[in-house]
Amino acid sequence: MSQEFDILVIGAGPGGYIAAIRAAQLGFKVACAEGNAYDDPKGDPRLGGTCLNVGCIPSKALLASSEEFENIGHHLGSHGITVKDLAIDVSKMVGRKNDIVTKMTGGIAYLFKKNKITLLKGYAAFKAKEGDRYQVEITGKDAGLVSAKQVIIATGSKARHLPGITVDNKLICDNEGGLQFDQTPKKLGVIGAGVIGLELGSVWRRLGADVTILEAMPTFLGACDTGVANEAKKLFTKQGLKFNLGVKIESVVAGKNNVKISYADDQGNAQSLVVDRLIVSVGRVPNTENLNLEAIGLKTDERGFIPVDDHTCATAAAGVYAVGDVIRGPMLAHKAEDEGVLVAEIIAGQKPHIDYNCIPWVIYTSPEIAWVGKTEQQLKAEGRAYKPGQFPFAANGRALGMGASDGFVKVLADANTDEILGVHIVASAASDLIAEAVVAMEFKAAAEDIARVCHPHPSLSEVMREAALAATDNRALNF
Protein backbone atom coordinates (compact mmCIF):
# COMPACT_ATOMS: atom_id res chain seq x y z
CA MET A 1 0.00 0.00 0.00
CA SER A 2 1.54 3.26 -1.09
CA GLN A 3 1.50 6.50 0.89
CA GLU A 4 -1.01 8.92 -0.61
CA PHE A 5 -0.66 12.69 -0.91
CA ASP A 6 -2.46 15.51 -2.64
CA ILE A 7 0.82 16.93 -3.96
CA LEU A 8 4.26 15.39 -4.28
CA VAL A 9 7.18 17.74 -4.88
CA ILE A 10 10.29 16.13 -6.34
CA GLY A 11 13.34 18.07 -5.20
CA ALA A 12 13.89 20.32 -2.17
CA GLY A 13 15.81 23.17 -3.77
CA PRO A 14 14.47 26.75 -3.89
CA GLY A 15 11.69 25.88 -6.33
CA GLY A 16 10.74 22.64 -4.59
CA TYR A 17 10.77 23.55 -0.93
CA ILE A 18 8.97 26.83 -1.56
CA ALA A 19 6.34 25.02 -3.66
CA ALA A 20 5.86 22.50 -0.86
CA ILE A 21 5.48 25.19 1.80
CA ARG A 22 3.01 27.24 -0.26
CA ALA A 23 0.97 24.14 -1.10
CA ALA A 24 0.84 23.20 2.59
CA GLN A 25 -0.27 26.74 3.48
CA LEU A 26 -3.13 26.29 1.02
CA GLY A 27 -4.35 23.18 2.85
CA PHE A 28 -2.93 20.35 0.74
CA LYS A 29 -1.39 17.17 2.10
CA VAL A 30 2.16 17.53 0.80
CA ALA A 31 5.29 15.39 0.53
CA CYS A 32 8.67 16.43 -0.77
CA ALA A 33 11.27 13.91 -1.97
CA GLU A 34 14.99 14.73 -1.78
CA GLY A 35 17.92 12.32 -2.04
CA ASN A 36 21.06 14.44 -2.37
CA ALA A 37 23.09 14.27 0.86
CA TYR A 38 25.78 16.80 -0.23
CA ASP A 39 28.38 15.01 1.92
CA ASP A 40 26.14 15.04 4.99
CA PRO A 41 27.97 13.07 7.73
CA LYS A 42 24.84 11.03 8.50
CA GLY A 43 24.03 10.47 4.84
CA ASP A 44 20.73 12.31 5.22
CA PRO A 45 19.41 14.49 2.40
CA ARG A 46 20.47 18.13 2.66
CA LEU A 47 17.55 20.40 1.86
CA GLY A 48 17.93 23.56 -0.18
CA GLY A 49 19.38 22.06 -3.35
CA THR A 50 22.39 23.48 -5.17
CA CYS A 51 21.57 27.02 -4.05
CA LEU A 52 21.89 26.49 -0.32
CA ASN A 53 24.46 23.70 -0.34
CA VAL A 54 26.96 24.32 -3.15
CA GLY A 55 25.78 27.46 -4.90
CA CYS A 56 24.27 30.81 -3.93
CA ILE A 57 24.63 30.74 -0.16
CA PRO A 58 28.12 29.24 0.28
CA SER A 59 29.58 31.32 -2.54
CA LYS A 60 28.20 34.52 -0.98
CA ALA A 61 29.69 33.53 2.37
CA LEU A 62 33.12 33.16 0.76
CA LEU A 63 32.66 36.36 -1.22
CA ALA A 64 31.91 38.22 2.02
CA SER A 65 34.98 36.75 3.76
CA SER A 66 37.27 37.56 0.86
CA GLU A 67 35.91 41.10 0.62
CA GLU A 68 36.64 41.65 4.31
CA PHE A 69 40.19 40.43 3.77
CA GLU A 70 40.76 42.68 0.77
CA ASN A 71 39.21 45.72 2.45
CA ILE A 72 41.45 45.35 5.49
CA GLY A 73 44.53 44.77 3.39
CA HIS A 74 44.02 47.39 0.69
CA HIS A 75 41.26 49.88 1.46
CA LEU A 76 41.44 50.87 5.12
CA GLY A 77 44.51 53.07 4.70
CA SER A 78 42.45 55.91 3.25
CA HIS A 79 40.34 55.83 6.43
CA GLY A 80 43.46 56.31 8.53
CA ILE A 81 43.37 52.71 9.75
CA THR A 82 46.56 50.65 9.77
CA VAL A 83 46.58 46.89 10.20
CA LYS A 84 49.72 44.83 10.59
CA ASP A 85 50.38 41.10 10.07
CA LEU A 86 47.22 40.46 8.07
CA ALA A 87 46.63 36.73 7.45
CA ILE A 88 43.86 34.46 6.24
CA ASP A 89 42.96 31.04 7.62
CA VAL A 90 41.31 29.45 4.59
CA SER A 91 40.16 26.38 6.53
CA LYS A 92 38.39 28.57 9.09
CA MET A 93 36.85 30.65 6.32
CA VAL A 94 35.52 27.50 4.62
CA GLY A 95 34.32 26.23 8.00
CA ARG A 96 32.32 29.41 8.54
CA LYS A 97 30.76 28.90 5.12
CA ASN A 98 29.85 25.32 6.03
CA ASP A 99 28.27 26.44 9.31
CA ILE A 100 26.07 28.93 7.45
CA VAL A 101 24.99 26.22 5.00
CA THR A 102 24.13 23.84 7.85
CA LYS A 103 22.07 26.52 9.59
CA MET A 104 20.17 27.37 6.42
CA THR A 105 19.41 23.80 5.42
CA GLY A 106 18.34 23.03 8.97
CA GLY A 107 15.98 25.98 8.75
CA ILE A 108 14.16 24.37 5.84
CA ALA A 109 13.77 21.14 7.81
CA TYR A 110 12.13 23.21 10.58
CA LEU A 111 9.78 24.84 8.05
CA PHE A 112 8.77 21.40 6.76
CA LYS A 113 7.85 20.31 10.28
CA LYS A 114 6.05 23.59 10.95
CA ASN A 115 3.94 23.17 7.81
CA LYS A 116 3.40 19.42 8.29
CA ILE A 117 5.20 18.50 5.07
CA THR A 118 6.34 14.88 4.82
CA LEU A 119 10.02 14.64 3.85
CA LEU A 120 10.72 11.53 1.80
CA LYS A 121 14.45 10.78 2.06
CA GLY A 122 15.37 9.45 -1.35
CA TYR A 123 15.29 9.99 -5.09
CA ALA A 124 11.95 9.89 -6.89
CA ALA A 125 11.10 8.40 -10.29
CA PHE A 126 7.73 8.00 -11.97
CA LYS A 127 6.38 4.46 -12.20
CA ALA A 128 2.92 4.82 -13.70
CA LYS A 129 -0.39 6.64 -13.62
CA GLU A 130 -3.34 4.79 -12.15
CA GLY A 131 -6.67 6.55 -12.43
CA ASP A 132 -6.19 10.15 -11.30
CA ARG A 133 -3.05 9.43 -9.27
CA TYR A 134 0.62 9.20 -10.16
CA GLN A 135 2.64 6.32 -8.71
CA VAL A 136 6.19 7.37 -7.84
CA GLU A 137 9.01 5.12 -6.66
CA ILE A 138 11.29 6.43 -3.90
CA THR A 139 14.82 5.01 -3.78
CA GLY A 140 16.82 5.69 -0.62
CA LYS A 141 16.23 5.79 3.13
CA ASP A 142 12.46 6.06 2.68
CA ALA A 143 12.29 3.55 -0.15
CA GLY A 144 8.83 2.64 -1.32
CA LEU A 145 5.90 3.67 -3.45
CA VAL A 146 3.95 6.89 -3.03
CA SER A 147 1.04 8.30 -4.98
CA ALA A 148 -0.18 11.83 -5.57
CA LYS A 149 -2.84 13.57 -7.61
CA GLN A 150 -0.47 16.39 -8.50
CA VAL A 151 3.32 16.28 -8.92
CA ILE A 152 5.71 19.23 -9.09
CA ILE A 153 9.11 18.45 -10.60
CA ALA A 154 11.81 20.69 -9.13
CA THR A 155 15.00 18.66 -9.50
CA GLY A 156 17.25 21.60 -10.40
CA SER A 157 20.48 21.43 -12.33
CA LYS A 158 24.11 20.38 -12.13
CA ALA A 159 27.35 21.81 -13.45
CA ARG A 160 27.99 21.26 -17.12
CA HIS A 161 31.29 19.52 -17.79
CA LEU A 162 33.33 19.72 -20.98
CA PRO A 163 34.15 16.60 -23.01
CA GLY A 164 37.67 15.34 -22.36
CA ILE A 165 38.06 17.25 -19.10
CA THR A 166 37.76 15.07 -16.00
CA VAL A 167 36.49 16.99 -12.98
CA ASP A 168 37.86 15.47 -9.77
CA ASN A 169 37.09 18.50 -7.56
CA LYS A 170 40.67 18.47 -6.35
CA LEU A 171 42.84 19.83 -9.13
CA ILE A 172 40.10 20.30 -11.73
CA CYS A 173 36.92 21.58 -10.12
CA ASP A 174 33.41 22.67 -10.91
CA ASN A 175 31.48 25.06 -8.66
CA GLU A 176 31.40 22.52 -5.81
CA GLY A 177 35.15 21.99 -5.72
CA GLY A 178 35.78 25.70 -6.20
CA LEU A 179 34.10 26.32 -2.84
CA GLN A 180 36.25 23.81 -0.94
CA PHE A 181 39.92 24.72 -1.51
CA ASP A 182 41.98 24.05 1.61
CA GLN A 183 44.38 26.84 0.72
CA THR A 184 44.64 29.72 -1.74
CA PRO A 185 46.20 28.54 -5.01
CA LYS A 186 49.09 30.63 -6.28
CA LYS A 187 47.76 30.40 -9.83
CA LEU A 188 44.12 29.71 -10.59
CA GLY A 189 42.59 29.12 -14.00
CA VAL A 190 38.88 29.53 -14.71
CA ILE A 191 37.20 28.30 -17.88
CA GLY A 192 34.11 30.43 -18.35
CA ALA A 193 33.55 34.13 -17.64
CA GLY A 194 29.93 33.73 -16.57
CA VAL A 195 28.36 34.37 -13.18
CA ILE A 196 29.96 31.46 -11.31
CA GLY A 197 33.36 31.87 -12.94
CA LEU A 198 33.51 35.57 -12.09
CA GLU A 199 32.33 35.09 -8.52
CA LEU A 200 34.69 32.23 -7.66
CA GLY A 201 37.54 33.88 -9.53
CA SER A 202 36.93 37.02 -7.48
CA VAL A 203 36.98 35.10 -4.18
CA TRP A 204 40.39 33.56 -4.75
CA ARG A 205 41.87 36.64 -6.45
CA ARG A 206 41.14 38.68 -3.32
CA LEU A 207 42.87 36.07 -1.19
CA GLY A 208 46.04 36.29 -3.28
CA ALA A 209 45.61 33.98 -6.26
CA ASP A 210 46.83 34.99 -9.71
CA VAL A 211 43.60 34.38 -11.66
CA THR A 212 43.27 33.92 -15.41
CA ILE A 213 39.82 33.50 -16.94
CA LEU A 214 39.43 31.82 -20.34
CA GLU A 215 36.19 32.50 -22.20
CA ALA A 216 35.04 30.99 -25.50
CA MET A 217 32.76 33.90 -26.40
CA PRO A 218 34.42 36.88 -28.10
CA THR A 219 32.56 39.36 -25.92
CA PHE A 220 32.52 39.81 -22.15
CA LEU A 221 29.18 39.17 -20.39
CA GLY A 222 27.24 39.15 -23.62
CA ALA A 223 23.87 38.93 -21.81
CA CYS A 224 24.54 42.23 -20.01
CA ASP A 225 23.96 45.70 -21.27
CA THR A 226 27.07 46.58 -23.29
CA GLY A 227 27.84 49.65 -21.20
CA VAL A 228 27.64 47.63 -17.98
CA ALA A 229 29.80 44.83 -19.39
CA ASN A 230 32.47 47.27 -20.54
CA GLU A 231 32.55 49.03 -17.17
CA ALA A 232 32.70 45.74 -15.27
CA LYS A 233 35.53 44.35 -17.39
CA LYS A 234 37.52 47.56 -16.88
CA LEU A 235 37.05 47.40 -13.10
CA PHE A 236 37.77 43.67 -12.80
CA THR A 237 40.92 44.01 -14.90
CA LYS A 238 42.08 46.86 -12.68
CA GLN A 239 41.55 44.61 -9.67
CA GLY A 240 43.86 41.98 -11.18
CA LEU A 241 41.64 39.46 -12.95
CA LYS A 242 43.08 38.47 -16.34
CA PHE A 243 40.70 37.78 -19.23
CA ASN A 244 41.33 35.93 -22.48
CA LEU A 245 38.23 36.07 -24.67
CA GLY A 246 37.39 34.15 -27.82
CA VAL A 247 39.59 31.18 -26.92
CA LYS A 248 39.22 27.56 -27.97
CA ILE A 249 40.27 24.97 -25.40
CA GLU A 250 42.40 22.29 -27.02
CA SER A 251 43.31 20.12 -24.04
CA VAL A 252 43.42 20.06 -20.25
CA VAL A 253 46.00 17.78 -18.62
CA ALA A 254 46.22 17.26 -14.87
CA GLY A 255 49.68 16.67 -13.45
CA LYS A 256 50.62 15.70 -9.90
CA ASN A 257 50.23 19.19 -8.47
CA ASN A 258 49.11 21.37 -11.37
CA VAL A 259 46.99 21.58 -14.50
CA LYS A 260 48.10 22.53 -18.01
CA ILE A 261 45.55 24.11 -20.33
CA SER A 262 46.36 24.30 -24.02
CA TYR A 263 44.21 26.64 -26.07
CA ALA A 264 44.04 28.80 -29.17
CA ASP A 265 43.62 32.52 -28.57
CA ASP A 266 41.23 34.79 -30.48
CA GLN A 267 43.80 35.06 -33.29
CA GLY A 268 44.17 31.28 -33.56
CA ASN A 269 47.62 31.25 -31.97
CA ALA A 270 48.56 28.30 -29.76
CA GLN A 271 48.81 29.21 -26.07
CA SER A 272 49.25 27.33 -22.82
CA LEU A 273 48.58 28.07 -19.17
CA VAL A 274 49.82 26.13 -16.14
CA VAL A 275 47.86 26.61 -12.92
CA ASP A 276 47.69 25.07 -9.46
CA ARG A 277 43.90 24.68 -9.65
CA LEU A 278 41.37 24.92 -12.46
CA ILE A 279 37.67 25.76 -12.14
CA VAL A 280 35.44 24.71 -15.04
CA SER A 281 32.40 26.99 -15.09
CA VAL A 282 30.61 26.67 -18.41
CA GLY A 283 26.96 26.66 -17.44
CA ARG A 284 24.56 24.12 -16.01
CA VAL A 285 22.33 21.32 -17.29
CA PRO A 286 18.94 20.19 -15.92
CA ASN A 287 18.62 17.14 -13.65
CA THR A 288 15.99 15.24 -15.60
CA GLU A 289 17.66 12.00 -16.69
CA ASN A 290 16.57 9.76 -13.78
CA LEU A 291 12.92 10.75 -13.42
CA ASN A 292 11.59 8.02 -15.76
CA LEU A 293 9.37 10.58 -17.46
CA GLU A 294 8.56 8.07 -20.18
CA ALA A 295 6.40 6.16 -17.71
CA ILE A 296 3.86 8.99 -17.78
CA GLY A 297 4.25 9.91 -21.43
CA LEU A 298 6.67 12.82 -21.02
CA LYS A 299 10.03 13.47 -22.62
CA THR A 300 12.61 16.23 -22.47
CA ASP A 301 13.76 18.43 -25.32
CA GLU A 302 17.17 18.11 -26.99
CA ARG A 303 18.85 20.03 -24.14
CA GLY A 304 17.27 17.97 -21.37
CA PHE A 305 14.61 20.52 -20.34
CA ILE A 306 11.00 19.58 -19.65
CA PRO A 307 8.60 21.47 -21.98
CA VAL A 308 5.95 23.40 -20.07
CA ASP A 309 3.17 25.88 -20.73
CA ASP A 310 4.45 29.44 -20.86
CA HIS A 311 2.08 30.71 -18.17
CA THR A 312 1.31 27.83 -15.80
CA CYS A 313 4.44 25.61 -15.81
CA ALA A 314 2.16 22.69 -16.67
CA THR A 315 3.65 19.76 -18.58
CA ALA A 316 1.85 17.67 -21.20
CA ALA A 317 0.86 15.21 -18.46
CA ALA A 318 -2.26 16.42 -16.67
CA GLY A 319 -1.50 17.31 -13.06
CA VAL A 320 2.28 17.31 -13.50
CA TYR A 321 4.15 20.60 -13.33
CA ALA A 322 7.82 21.55 -13.53
CA VAL A 323 9.62 24.60 -12.14
CA GLY A 324 13.07 26.12 -11.85
CA ASP A 325 16.19 24.92 -13.63
CA VAL A 326 14.47 21.97 -15.35
CA ILE A 327 12.39 24.27 -17.58
CA ARG A 328 12.88 27.23 -19.93
CA GLY A 329 14.10 30.56 -18.66
CA PRO A 330 16.99 31.74 -16.51
CA MET A 331 18.51 29.35 -13.98
CA LEU A 332 17.92 31.62 -11.00
CA ALA A 333 16.84 30.59 -7.50
CA HIS A 334 14.33 33.42 -7.16
CA LYS A 335 12.76 32.53 -10.51
CA ALA A 336 12.35 28.94 -9.27
CA GLU A 337 10.79 30.14 -6.01
CA ASP A 338 8.24 32.30 -7.82
CA GLU A 339 7.34 29.41 -10.11
CA GLY A 340 6.92 27.13 -7.09
CA VAL A 341 4.45 29.56 -5.55
CA LEU A 342 2.70 30.03 -8.89
CA VAL A 343 2.11 26.29 -9.38
CA ALA A 344 0.86 25.72 -5.83
CA GLU A 345 -1.62 28.56 -6.23
CA ILE A 346 -2.77 27.36 -9.66
CA ILE A 347 -3.46 23.91 -8.20
CA ALA A 348 -5.53 25.67 -5.52
CA GLY A 349 -7.60 27.39 -8.21
CA GLN A 350 -6.03 30.82 -7.91
CA LYS A 351 -4.81 32.92 -10.86
CA PRO A 352 -1.21 33.97 -10.16
CA HIS A 353 1.07 35.48 -12.79
CA ILE A 354 4.81 35.87 -13.37
CA ASP A 355 6.21 38.62 -15.56
CA TYR A 356 9.48 37.05 -16.69
CA ASN A 357 10.68 40.41 -17.99
CA CYS A 358 10.72 41.60 -14.38
CA ILE A 359 12.98 38.89 -12.99
CA PRO A 360 16.25 40.50 -11.84
CA TRP A 361 19.72 39.14 -12.51
CA VAL A 362 22.67 39.63 -10.14
CA ILE A 363 26.37 38.86 -10.28
CA TYR A 364 27.91 39.10 -6.81
CA THR A 365 31.31 40.39 -7.77
CA SER A 366 32.77 43.59 -6.31
CA PRO A 367 31.25 45.81 -7.49
CA GLU A 368 28.08 43.83 -8.03
CA ILE A 369 26.25 43.77 -11.34
CA ALA A 370 22.46 43.70 -11.48
CA TRP A 371 19.83 44.30 -14.11
CA VAL A 372 16.19 43.84 -14.98
CA GLY A 373 14.34 44.22 -18.25
CA LYS A 374 15.79 45.10 -21.65
CA THR A 375 19.36 46.05 -22.53
CA GLU A 376 20.21 48.86 -24.93
CA GLN A 377 21.29 46.36 -27.58
CA GLN A 378 17.95 44.52 -27.28
CA LEU A 379 15.97 47.73 -27.66
CA LYS A 380 18.02 48.74 -30.69
CA ALA A 381 17.48 45.30 -32.26
CA GLU A 382 13.73 45.64 -31.67
CA GLY A 383 13.74 49.11 -33.21
CA ARG A 384 12.12 50.55 -30.12
CA ALA A 385 12.69 54.23 -29.42
CA TYR A 386 14.05 54.75 -25.92
CA LYS A 387 15.65 57.35 -23.66
CA PRO A 388 18.74 56.43 -21.59
CA GLY A 389 19.56 58.06 -18.30
CA GLN A 390 22.80 57.32 -16.45
CA PHE A 391 24.30 58.57 -13.19
CA PRO A 392 27.67 57.65 -11.61
CA PHE A 393 28.26 56.68 -7.99
CA ALA A 394 31.35 58.90 -8.11
CA ALA A 395 28.95 61.86 -7.74
CA ASN A 396 27.15 60.37 -4.73
CA GLY A 397 28.21 61.45 -1.23
CA ARG A 398 27.24 58.20 0.47
CA ALA A 399 29.23 56.15 -2.05
CA LEU A 400 32.28 58.38 -1.59
CA GLY A 401 32.06 58.04 2.18
CA MET A 402 31.86 54.27 1.88
CA GLY A 403 34.76 54.08 -0.56
CA ALA A 404 32.36 52.51 -3.06
CA SER A 405 32.27 55.09 -5.85
CA ASP A 406 32.77 52.70 -8.79
CA GLY A 407 29.94 52.11 -11.24
CA PHE A 408 26.65 53.70 -12.21
CA VAL A 409 22.90 53.24 -12.62
CA LYS A 410 21.41 53.29 -16.11
CA VAL A 411 17.67 53.67 -16.67
CA LEU A 412 16.15 52.95 -20.09
CA ALA A 413 12.70 54.40 -20.69
CA ASP A 414 10.31 54.39 -23.64
CA ALA A 415 10.84 57.55 -25.69
CA ASN A 416 7.12 58.15 -26.05
CA THR A 417 5.45 56.84 -22.88
CA ASP A 418 8.39 57.13 -20.44
CA GLU A 419 7.68 53.55 -19.21
CA ILE A 420 10.78 51.99 -17.68
CA LEU A 421 12.03 49.26 -20.02
CA GLY A 422 15.24 48.27 -18.26
CA VAL A 423 17.55 49.21 -15.39
CA HIS A 424 21.22 48.27 -15.22
CA ILE A 425 23.52 48.75 -12.25
CA VAL A 426 27.21 48.35 -11.49
CA ALA A 427 27.67 49.10 -7.78
CA SER A 428 28.68 47.68 -4.43
CA ALA A 429 25.00 47.30 -3.46
CA ALA A 430 23.50 46.54 -6.88
CA SER A 431 21.71 43.42 -5.62
CA ASP A 432 19.66 45.52 -3.20
CA LEU A 433 19.25 48.61 -5.37
CA ILE A 434 17.79 46.63 -8.27
CA ALA A 435 14.72 45.74 -6.17
CA GLU A 436 13.36 49.28 -6.54
CA ALA A 437 13.57 48.95 -10.30
CA VAL A 438 11.81 45.57 -10.22
CA VAL A 439 8.91 46.98 -8.20
CA ALA A 440 8.65 49.97 -10.53
CA MET A 441 8.60 47.79 -13.64
CA GLU A 442 6.03 45.40 -12.15
CA PHE A 443 3.72 48.39 -11.77
CA LYS A 444 4.57 49.70 -15.26
CA ALA A 445 6.06 52.85 -13.75
CA ALA A 446 7.53 55.67 -15.78
CA ALA A 447 11.02 57.02 -15.20
CA GLU A 448 9.36 60.18 -13.92
CA ASP A 449 7.62 58.14 -11.20
CA ILE A 450 10.99 57.16 -9.67
CA ALA A 451 12.30 60.68 -10.29
CA ARG A 452 9.47 62.19 -8.23
CA VAL A 453 9.77 59.76 -5.30
CA CYS A 454 11.66 61.23 -2.33
CA HIS A 455 14.79 59.14 -1.65
CA PRO A 456 16.74 59.31 1.64
CA HIS A 457 19.86 61.47 1.74
CA PRO A 458 22.62 60.54 1.85
CA SER A 459 22.06 57.08 0.37
CA LEU A 460 23.11 54.97 -2.58
CA SER A 461 19.46 54.87 -3.67
CA GLU A 462 19.72 58.51 -4.72
CA VAL A 463 21.70 57.34 -7.75
CA MET A 464 18.61 55.45 -8.94
CA ARG A 465 16.59 58.63 -8.70
CA GLU A 466 19.26 60.68 -10.49
CA ALA A 467 19.43 58.14 -13.33
CA ALA A 468 15.64 58.29 -13.64
CA LEU A 469 15.86 62.08 -13.71
CA ALA A 470 18.52 61.83 -16.42
CA ALA A 471 16.16 59.68 -18.49
CA THR A 472 13.41 62.27 -17.97
CA ASP A 473 14.47 65.14 -20.22
CA ASN A 474 18.05 64.99 -18.92
CA ARG A 475 17.06 66.43 -15.54
CA ALA A 476 19.81 64.98 -13.31
CA LEU A 477 20.39 67.43 -10.47
CA ASN A 478 23.82 66.50 -9.14
CA PHE A 479 25.89 65.82 -12.25
TrEMBL record:
EC number: 1.8.1.4
Main location: cytoplasm
SUPFAM superfamilies: FAD/NAD(P)-binding domain (SSF51905), FAD/NAD-linked reductases, dimerisation (C-terminal) domain (SSF55424)
A cellular component term, taken from the record's GO annotations: cytoplasm
Active site residues according to the UniProt entry: 457
Catalytic reaction equation(s): N(6)-[(R)-dihydrolipoyl]-L-lysyl-[protein] + NAD(+) = N(6)-[(R)-lipoyl]-L-lysyl-[protein] + NADH + H(+)
Named cofactor requirement(s): FAD
Residue positions binding NAD(+): 192-199, 215, 283
Disulfide cysteine pairs (residue numbers): 51-56
Superkingdom of this protein's organism: Bacteria
Family the entry assigns: Belongs to the class-I pyridine nucleotide-disulfide oxidoreductase family.
Official protein name in the record: Dihydrolipoyl dehydrogenase
Source species of the chain: Polynucleobacter kasalickyi
Lineage of the species this protein comes from: Bacteria, Pseudomonadati, Pseudomonadota, Betaproteobacteria, Burkholderiales
